[in-house]
Specification:
mainly alpha, about 80% helix
Length: about 230
């Protein structure tokens, strides 16, 4: 069943990209919501199936739900106002829950902190030197950069806990990297000056597979153990 949901999510993503490129704004909101519902349903299948590691799967499911909320809020936002801030908060909350689940499965080490700090520094440099118009939202984006940097590093740190759980770990690692890439592309689309419309489609082509990887991982028989 979860494979059907994953296929439906990808089909919705393709439809979303098509209608967005052709300026069908109402269908864009509908398909964005639909794609989000399907990755939540994929995660829910895993949460129901994996009864032995409920702490991990429940945190991941909450993260997927927060992501869906962020998706809907950003889809409804028209002028990067309060709905945009709430949407970013939804995604930040999702990454916090992802991070907590990863930390439970693989404890935080000193090298994780250093790696996250280096990645955050790189993101900060990009924010400062890029050709952007942040419209007063720079502090919000800086905080989000800190959250996504730590989440990505913790996703990659699961490699050290992969024994016997390789498939789930590789999916989670791939999801973390795809999230970082999609957020970088989204940064240029939302705040870059003179960025082509195709940039948003590239963001979705990275973002939904990222969520798909996270949700699909929950359907593996052996997941990272939550302490």
């Amino acid at each position: 069943m979860f494979i059907i949901f994953e296929v439906c999510m990808l089909a919705s993503m393709c439809g979303l990209i098509y209608v967005f490129q052709n300026d069908y704004s109402t269908l864009t909101i509908i398909l964005k919501t639909t794609a989000s519902i399907f990755f939540v349903l994929t995660g829910l299948c895993g949460c129901i199936k994996n009864k032995e590691n409920r702490r991990f799967t429940r945190l991941m499911l909450i993260a997927l739900l927060c992501s869906m909320a962020g998706d809907i809020l950003l889809a409804l936002d028209k002028n990067q106002g309060m709905l945009f801030v709430l949407g970013v908060a939804g995604f930040a909350a999702a990454h916090v829950f992802y991070s907590v689940s990863f930390c439970r499965a693989c404890r935080v080490r000193k090298k994780d902190i250093i790696a996250a700090a280096v990645l955050f520094a790189g993101c900060t440099v990009l924010l400062c030197v890029g050709n952007f118009d942040f419209q007063g939202l720079f502090p919000v984006l800086l905080g989000y950069a800190a959250v996504i940097s730590f989440m990505t590093v913790k996703a990659l740190s699961l490699y050290s806990c992969r024994k016997g759980r390789e498939k789930a770990v590789w999916l989670l690692m791939a999801g973390g990297v795809l999230f970082l890439l999609s957020d970088m592309v989204l940064l240029f689309w939302l705040f870059g000056i003179g960025v082509p419309k195709e940039m948003q489609s590239v963001c979705w082509a990275l973002y939904y597979p990222a969520q798909g990887c996270m949700a699909a991982a929950l359907n593996e028989k052996k997941l990272p153990k939550s302490a």
